[in-house]
Amino acid sequence: MKKELIAVVLLAILVALAAVVLPLRFGSPMKSDMDDYFLRYGQEQTGTNNQCTSVTFDYRGFDTLGESTVFFCAVIGVGLMFRRMTGGEEIEDE
Amino acid sequence: MSKLVRFAADILYPVVLIFGLYVVAHGHITPGGGFQGGAVIATGVALVIVAYSYKEASAWITGSGSMAREVIGLMGFIGTALIAFFFGMPFFYNYLAGQGGLFGVPVAFGPNPGELNTGGFVPLMNFSVGIEVWGGFSLVILYLLSGLLRRRNGEEEES
Fold it and tell me: Do A49 and B114 touch (CB under 8 A)?
């Protein structure tokens, strides 16, 4: 009995969500102001023909900074796993 | 590895390095950039380490050198962005674009053949990220191979 009740409630929530979500049309109307700005002024402001690079390294440099930091941390993590290669002191457990 | 593999690696290593440098240096004109070029260069390092034994290769592809490369790349990235403060501009402001001088040739709007001396500080960023990725991937490969070597040695000692 309880299981059936839970199933009915879940189904009702699903139907309600579907009724809200399904009539929406994603991606229309298209918001292209940002793209248009990058394409129109990117070459003059950053001097790069490659707009991908102008976005990743100039307009959104913080994103690339975080990416580099994540990469650095990943390498540090691998280094911690294989610590003995660097010739440091071996930490003995027990 | 066999002599054939070593010969092929000897021939391919400079080609891979030059192609990676090309991808890094032309990051602001053609598809590519620091991450991709650095990964290509690290592929060359992996080729040498696989073709030669770990002992021979680690004599001149050292872990400390790769670590220094990685740190220098990240510090260069942050430092290049920080220089903008001295011009009274915000962090990550492109202070070199369109000023003339280094990487400062102005670019007109629209399709054009492309000039290497453009892009403001974007090429500098590309180079620092490329150096960082080169060092980081070489370090990961070296670490992994050193663990493999240690395990093999340990098994030989045990048996």
Answer: yes
Query: φ and ψ at B107, to 5 degrees?
Result: -115, 135
Q: Which of helix, strand or coil describes residue A9?
A: helix
Q: Which residues of A touch B (CB under 8 A)?
A: 40, 43-50, 52-54, 56-58, 61-62, 64-65, 67-69, 71-72, 74-75, 78-79, 81-82, 84-86
d(CA A38, CA A59): 9
Using 70 as the pLDDT threshold, list the residues of chain B that sit under it: 147-159
Question: Residue A78 pLDDT > 60, yes or no?
Answer: yes
Which pLDDT belongs to residue B75?
92
* Residue at A50: amino acid letter: N
Q: What pLDDT, on a 0 to 100 scale, did the predictor assign at position B76?
A: 92
